[in-house]
Amino acid sequence: MNKFYFILLVLLTASCSGQDFSINDFITQKLESKNKKILIVECYCDNGVTVKKTDDTLITINVKGNLSSLGYHGKQTAPKKIDKETLLFRVVETKDTLTIISKEWTHMHHRYLIKDLNISIPKNMKYEIKKILGVDLEGRKTN
């Protein structure tokens, strides 16, 4: 009987062996402030956001992201890097506000999350961080 359980354990372990991956990548995105008065940052950013005011007129966004798959039971090809479009923030301009929106998402065993976010803004610009809730990341559309 013990042999039966051992063989069953081996078969279950073999059938669950996935091809997990975790890839870290980074990008620097620069935006003209165009005399906007407010920057709104929309992201999950579990590790927080660091905002520094500078004498520069550019907004500089330094993003370190992680694309990963954990516990997927099928075959998959692990990417070599994170796509540039995934790392870049989506930008929305209104009258006096510039909104940058992360492209973080989760889908079952796969996810893209920002691990580190540092932003430099002009010293006269105000900013607001709008946290995306973790439960809202599942199946999130990013375009």
UniProtKB/TrEMBL annotation:
PROSITE patterns linked to this entry: PROKAR_LIPOPROTEIN
Domain of life: Bacteria
Protein name: Lipoprotein
Originating species: Cellulophaga fucicola
